[in-house]
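ok so for the tutorial part 2 we go from a plain amino acid sequence to predicted structure tokens. step 1 is just haveing the sequence, like this:
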Amino acid sequence: MNEWKLTFDNWDIKDQKAREALCTLGNGYWATRGAFEEATQHHGHYPGTYIAGVFDRCERIIAGETVSHETIVNWPNWLYLTFAMEDGDWFSMEQVQVNTFRQELDLQRGVLSRHIRFTDPKGRETILQSIRLVHMEHSHLAALQWTLTPLNWSGRLHVRSALDSGIGNGNVDRYREMNAKHFRLLDSGFHKQGWLYVVTETLQSQIRLAQGLRTHVSGGHLLFQRNLQERDMTIEEFVLDIQEQAPLQIVKTVALYHSRDRGISKPLEAVHHSLASAGSFEQLFSSHQNAWDRIWDMTDLRIQNRPEDQLMLRLHLFHLLQTASPHLTDLDASLPARGLTGEMYQGHIFWDDVFALPFLTMRVPRAARAMLLYRSRRQQQAGAQARQHGLQGIRFPWRSGSDGSEQTPRFQWNPYSQHWIEDHTHLQCHQNAAIVYQIWKYYQATADLEFLRAHGGLLTLQIARFWSSLATLDEMSGRYHIRGVMGPDEFHTGYPDSPTPGLQDNAYTNVMAVWTLQCARHVLQTLPDYSRQQLMEILSIDHSDLKHWENITRHMFVPFHENDLISQFAGYENLQELDVNAYQARYGDIRRIDHILEAEGDTVNRYKISKQPDVLMLCYLLTVSELQSIFANLGYPFSLSLLQKNMAYYQERTTHGSTLSRVVYGWIHARSDRSGSWACLAEALGQDVHKIKGGSTGEGIHLGAMAGTIDLMQRCYGGIDCEDNVLTVNPRLPETLEGLAMKVEYRQHQIKVQITPSSLSLDVSAGPNFPLVINVRGTRYVFGTPTQQDFTL
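step 2 — the prediction. this is what the tokens look like for a chain of 793 residues:
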């Protein structure tokens, strides 16, 4: 098995949309799904081209109500390329006999290729080879090359290369009432220098996009060439005579710019300049590969003697890196839950960045910073969200798009009951703690004090102020409570008999609120005196506020039941147990038991069953020592045996309805059940590839879960983290893993890490921040110069 290549050796139309998502190519600025070049939006094919941070909003009638929704936009398809033999139809895979098929995603070079040998209904045998790239260095360029070889025939061939503006948003079946075309065609034509162009504009956000396409044909005898406009296609057509065994080569180069790009005058003018200087396919391929070489040199995670797992790990890295690439630095964008590979969740930003930031911060810190700046730019809307709820500070939404307003839909489609049901997931506010968590992790890894002064400190204090105003004091008990929220579980939206949604005292939310308030104190202590005073003056925070925050961190309520079981939320113990075996016997797949129960006229709110870890998410983000400190400060018991009991209790009551679930359980098991941990990771590594049938991969890969598997390798198995201005390395490999190697960047030092079950090697490069302190398994070592040091584990 090649550890760098995801290969499909058979052709099955039923798998096509999932493969298109898996084979998406992108560079952080934009991405294109792995659809066949000749395909249009029909019969199982779905070409999709998406631009980071570009959304459009429209209104639709859903469940009898007018609903506004915002979505990422599917732009005109630049891939379209097809041919017809002189008396035949335009080529499609469905109308020929496919003799051999191979599609290959080369992760190392960032290219997608296809090789097919087919026979048409008249017995003519042909080989078609294609290769494409979305350029990782020149972010506005992409290119593809076809080589067409007639094996047993000669004759006339018609070739069409086009920009297809007939594309709309239709990738997700359950959004059928929300599906729409989100752009209008403003202009299209044929430039005098020999390339096609289209100019489009989104309907509501009025973002203008220009695309230019240059097509070059070599081989055969060109009879004539013409330009056409048919329906929504701007076409360049070539008619040639070709000879048996003589290859014909076609190269398409595309450039695209939109009106919010920096450093341009007009998008179409920028397209012209970009195409004029683009160079040949070979030149583009070479510079593209060099860019990927540089990225892989810093980001690759290498494991020993597990080729399939290595391939899946690199596939996850690939999708993360081509969404959060170095190009993200100059963009106002973040990490969509499905990346730029499909339209599930409409391209919205949730909290998936919490699974990606620890890795990116220590590999591509500029991209991590850009993702945090995406939040910072939306503080005004977050402030409005807080005030709307009668609260202080800022409250970021559960789902964010263009301007940071809440984009959680009012309704969601239940495929079991076939009707729309109310969506209350906007009640989740725990993502605000996750944002502070990322800010602090970023600072710990980079020592970027300028960011902390200008952005991170303000965000942290404003979110701390939000939590302090959300927590209310019960004078009788002396404890603070948080009401009207949802936890990470996402099944439980309220109490069974309550007319209003929302839960009281979700344990995860309450504990992370405490952690945030403690972190705010750490941030203030870290800032220089003048910055701290200035920030407190700007926000009108005084010592009475800080004292109030401190009081909450000592008196927040955390619900327990059965002595040492942390309740997922207050009242959890009163819920019924669900007969999981009975439902599995009836339905097989019960990952979305909430939908099943709703279709039966029941509600998941009645049962002790979870979609994914909730209480146990605390163990993913915080160390055992951190949790012990928080609980001790609150006056509650906490021990390793208590943690293990909670792990066993909630694992029996989790359906793993989210792809993130296996990642979190892989982490939870890592210290006590290493074989169980690896089993969870192995399932998470392969879930998008191995569960193509019946899954939702075709609507976009699960980028948060992919990032989580990478985080598990680095922070959990590698034990690499940043705490108290010290890099910590405390590896513990599962028994099935013979070795793990990686590079990390810590405060501008590059460190090569090699781990085996019995040894650790650290190779520290030169940097500006010597002496460098590294905590290895509880012992602090001071590195005064660039050096390599070995440790016995």
